[in-house]
Amino acid sequence: MRLAKVFAAVFVVALCASMVTHAQEAQEKKQSARATKLVKPWVDMSSLSDEQKSRIIEIHREALDKINAIRKQEREDIMALLSEEQKREARELMSKRKQESTAGGNED
Q1: Helical segments of 1-108, H only
Q2: Burial state string for 3-22 with b = 16 or more CB within 10 A and e = fewer than 16
Q3: What is the per-residue pLDDT for 26?
Q4: Mean pLDDT, the chain, as a whole number?
Q5: C-beta of residue 99 within 8 angstroms of C-beta of residue 91
Q6: Any idea where the domains of the chain sit in the sequence?
Q7: Which of 40, 71, 95, 101 is least enclosed, having the fewest CB within 10 Å?
Q8: Distance (Å, rounded) from C-alpha 80 to C-alpha 87?
Q9: Rounded Cα distance, 18 and 16, in Å
């Protein structure tokens, strides 16, 4: 009986680890897929080599990562200044804005 409990516990831990790993891989894949396209004006250039295109994509991805890090830090710094009531209001406004932008993107 004790062996069955140990086996069940190991199984649950392994399952949870697998789910976390899968979620992380899915998130990384989603982020990678989002930034794998060339953007204007580079996408319109017919003379770029495959190596140049790959490097441009890499540079663009790195720039987006830096921009997102700066935005996150800005949000954290501003939220640190707010009272709890103001933080709650800010979260509600951000949530509403996110829902509106998601809903707007689904109409196309």
Answers
A1: 2-34, 50-81, 84-106
A2: eeeeeeeeeeeeeeeeeeee
A3: 66
A4: 83
A5: no
A6: 35-94
A7: 40
A8: 9
A9: 5
Task: Write down the residue that tokens 């490097």 correspond to.
Answer: 55
- Nearest 5 degrees, angle CA 61-CA 20-CA 94? 60
Angle, alpha carbons 45-41-101 (nearest 5°): 140
Along the 108 residues of the chain, how does pLDDT read in single tens digits?
777 777 677 767 766 667 766 666 666 666 555 556 888 999 999 999 999 999 999 999 999 999 999 999 999 999 999 999 999 999 999 999 989 988 875 544
The tens digit of pLDDT for each residue in 2-19 reads: 777 776 777 677 666 677
d(CA 88, CA 67): 25
Which residues contact residue 42 at a Cβ distance below 8 angstroms, ignoring those fewer than 6 apart? 48, 53, 56
Is the distance from CB of 79 to CB of 90 less than 8 angstroms? yes
